[in-house]
Amino acid sequence: MNTSLVLQYAVIAPLVAASLWTALRKLAPKTTTRWQAAAMLLRPHRGAFAQRMGRFVQPKGATGHCGDGCDTCGTCGPADASLSMGTASREQPVTFHPRRK
Predict the structure, then answer these.
(1) Is residue 76 part of a domain?
(2) pTM
(3) What are the two backbone dihedrals, phi and then psi, of residue 2, each rounded to the nearest 5 degrees?
(4) Is residue 27 situated within a structural domain?
(5) Is 9 inside a domain boundary?
C-alpha cells in the first residue's frame, strides 16, 4: 500500500469512528451508557485521567425537571396556556396560488 493511502485511512478511520459513536449516543443512549459502565472508567481504583475521560464520554442524563427537555412524562408543555390549547392564533390556512405565466 502507498504511504498516502495509509495516511488517508489514518485520517478517515477516526472520523468515521467518532461519527458512529455520536450517532449511537443519540439513537441508543441506554446501550452506550451500559457500554461505558462496563468499561469501568469511573471506578475509584482507576487513575484520574481515566475517571476524567469516563465523565467526559458519559451522556448527560435527564434530571427530571421540566427544563431539561426530556419530555418523557408528557407534562412539559409550552409556558403559554393558549398555545397548548390549539387556538386559532396558531392555525394558518393553506393558500394555493395559480402559477404565473
Answers:
(1) no
(2) 0.45
(3) -70, 160
(4) yes
(5) yes
pLDDT digits (tens, 9 = 90+) for 54-81: 777 776 665 556 655 555 566 665 555 5
pLDDT digits (tens, 9 = 90+) for 28-54: 888 887 777 777 777 788 888 888 887
Which three cell numbers mark 96?
Answer: 394555493
- Does residue 94 lie within any of the structural domains? no
| Residue 37 and residue 55 in contact, taking contact as beta carbons nearer than 8 Å | no
**Domain carrying residue 13:** 3-62
The rounded distance, in Å, linking the Cα atoms of 54 and 46 is 10
Domain count, the chain: 1
Nearest to 25 by CA among 66, 46, 48, 56: 56
